[in-house]
Amino acid sequence: MLPGMARRTSSSGETTELAQAWPAEWNTVAISLLASGFVELSQRLDRQGAFPVPYPPALQRGLDRLTAMGVVVDAKVLPRSVMDLAAWAHRPFAQWPFRPDVEGLNDDESLLVDGKPSKACLEWAVVSGDVEGEIRERLLIHGVLDVCKANDDPAAYVRFRRQLVEKPAMSERDLLVTMAQPGFAVLAQHLRGAYRPAPAEALVEGEAVVCGGCGHLWTVQIDGVRRCGEWDCPAPATIRKRLPASEGVVWLSRELRMFVSGPGRAELRIAEALERAGVTVRLWPNFDACDVLPVEVPWAADVKSWTNPVRLAWRLNERPFVVPPGAERGFIVIAKEQTTGRSEYLRTLRSHCGWLKGQSRVEAVSEKTFIERVLREFRKARA
Description:
Rossmann fold, three-stranded antiparallel beta sheet, globular
């Protein structure tokens, strides 16, 4: 399909390619605006508890752009309002009556799931570089970094990150106990700011269920069944524990669940696999210079868990990974949740990431490959 083209889905489900009709960048801009708008709308609803008026500017602009594109190609069905658009956003892209064609858009993805931004939506919003959630997440982490640097306490930063990964949900009482521990003294308020009260859909019959696969909370889904709704959960049908609602229940904000807790599970997995083999591992060393650094084999890993390799490629082009001082080389390591059963993931990432093609010291590999190569190098050095 040529740049600037669109797709139309008929009532029978057949997809027709429409003629080239606008600048190619309109496609990406339209989807990014819609994603950013839905993320901001969701955040306002969470804060205000009522539908905000006026709508977020990005959402209105995305709707206007999509409508204009549809008019140009004489699309038979167009969203006439934000509510119309929200109905479209719950459908997989393949079922949209009309949509711009973007390479980083998978047919089976949707922008909303059960009224909340999907992981695809959050990734598109982040790619657009203009979303409040990313700013809030980065402000929190940067604030923690500033405090730890001021106190010359890198261990406190590692404890904070591990806390978010290992306990993304807990009782209010457990959170207060954690905040009171000496190791969290300087970061108590930042820790408090990372967690939000559990939503009503997570509190059923007087309790919350903590998922055994990811540690997040089960919530009532649109079909009325309570289950884990996290995008990358490795075991969504298992239960870790149950928390009484009467004690208060908290969990991480959505942005932290996606950008910290999600990839953090892979980071801890990698560290544990290497440590079992005798490798000394530093997590988030030198105030987050990288995610994982095997000491005996100084190869710095930047772990990613993006669902779409094209969107990740764009992100890396925008924000390249810098190999930290002391490391011999760097690796973009893709969490196994994303590469399992997707042999094309790394190939697509490499082909779309111009920055990566020009690197001699950085390459993209799977989680399994990184572990195997580090262990092979470690054993070779010890032989």
